[in-house]
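lol ok so funny story. i was supposed to be doing the assay writeup but got distracted and ended up predicting the structure for this chain instead. priorities right. anyway since i did it might as well share w the group, maybe its usefull for someone
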Amino acid sequence: MLIFSIMDILVQWCVVCFDDGIQLVPKSWIAGTKCFWPTFTSNKRYEKAVKHCEEPDDSWPLYNMRILGTYDSYEIGKRKLKIAEDQSDLSTDDYEKSKKRRSLKKKK
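and the output, tada:
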C-alpha cells in the first residue's frame, strides 16, 4: 500500500484522451474521470501551465477523459504524447488509430 502512495506522489503529468483529441495535463487537473481544461487562448500559456503544474481554476470547464499514461517527468510525458498520437495505449506497441492533439478553443 505504501508503494502505491509513493508512486502517486511521483506522478505529476498524464497523457489523456478526450473525445476530440489527446493532450498532456498535470495530474492536479484530473478529477476522477474528468479533467479541467483551461480557457487560455494561446498555446504558449497552456504549455507554461502544464510544465509548471499550475493548479486548475474553478472556472475551467470539466471534460470526460481517459488516462493513457502517467509520468513523473514533463519531458517523458511530452515524448509519450507524440507516441500517443499514433497509438491508443501507451503501454503497448499495438497500433490502433491515429489521434490528433487537442487544441485550445478560440474566444469569440
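The chain has one domain: 2-84. The beta strands are 13-18, 21-26, 30-31, 34-36, 62-64, 66-71.
back to the writeup now i swear
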